[in-house]
Design goal:
Shape: elongated
Number of domains: 2
Helix content: 25-40%
Strand content: 15-25%
Largest sheet: 5 strands, antiparallel
Structural class: alpha+beta
Order of helices and strands: EEEHEEHHHEEHEHH
Strand order of the largest sheet: 3-2-1-4-5
Number of helices: 7
Distance between the termini: 47 Å
Number of strands: 8
Length: about 240
């Protein structure tokens, strides 16, 4: 069996002395793994960095087999940000989260398109790329069945003056609705309600804390999975260096 398609690199791990297992996210095949050889070639090694857009060729005797990959470069997005630590960690975080949340061999055009656009934003240093990254995490949470409800207050049902998010329900809460429990709630940065609103570093960190909580609580911990280290490092560098 054979197939070819477009996708981007997620990660690589050693299989044996001669080959590695390459993890990719493809447009038509979803997340897919395969063996790849010859990665010590300088040209190929530069291609299979996380986030790079490639044409992928897969072959195997049966669809259920691991099979073999060959790849051809389409756009080496990682080369644009080699000296930009926060951008590189953003790419690494995106790829790590996809590897741990996306089922193999299941097409997901919505997340694929969102992810590819975000990789372009990161690599081109788009002004709002960190905000876009956070919205990507929110979209992913929704796609895997754990979406947040930021449309109205869970207590008063008001649609305005939303200030907090309940850590248990994932629903927005007003200051009035929060009452004496406000210190137990997550802050809701205004830009998550009004995407064009300006935001501070504190707003970005508050939003990352919010999405991290629900990834951990609703997906990683119930499935006995470790939260990606690259995501922790991404938030840390925003706090300390951004």
């Amino acid at each position: 069996m054979r197939w070819s398609g477009n996708g981007f690199i997620l990660g690589l791990k050693t299989h044996n002395e001669a080959s590695y297992i390459l993890d990719v996210f493809t447009e038509e095949q979803g997340r897919h793994k395969g063996l790849i050889r010859g990665i010590h070639s300088k040209n190929l090694r530069a291609v299979i960095e996380p986030g790079n857009e490639v044409k992928i060729n897969w072959s195997g005797r049966l669809e259920s087999h691991l099979g073999n990959f060959t790849v051809e470069p389409v756009k080496l997005w990682s080369s644009y940000i080699l000296n930009q630590k926060v951008n590189l960690l953003g790419v690494s975080s995106l790829c790590s989260i996809i590897m741990t949340t996306m089922a193999e061999k299941q097409e997901n055009l919505f997340i694929y398109d969102k992810s590819l656009q975000l990789l372009k934003d990161m690599s081109q240093n788009h002004d709002d790329w960190i905000k876009n990254y956070i919205f990507w995490e929110i979209d992913l949470l929704s796609d895997i069945g754990y979406g947040l409800d930021l449309s109205e207050c869970a207590v008063t049902f008001q649609k305005k003056e939303l200030k907090f998010v309940s850590p248990s329900s994932g629903k927005a809460v007003t200051l009035e609705g929060a009452g004496s429990f406000k210190d137990r709630l997550f802050k809701l940065p205004n830009f998550l309600i009004n995407r064009s609103a300006k935001c501070t570093k504190e707003d970005l960190v508050d939003a990352l804390n919010l999405t991290e909580h629900f990834f951990r609580k609703r997906y990683y911990e119930p499935n006995n999975l470790n939260f990606p280290k690259s995501r922790n490092q991404f938030k840390k560098v925003i706090i300390n260096e951004y």
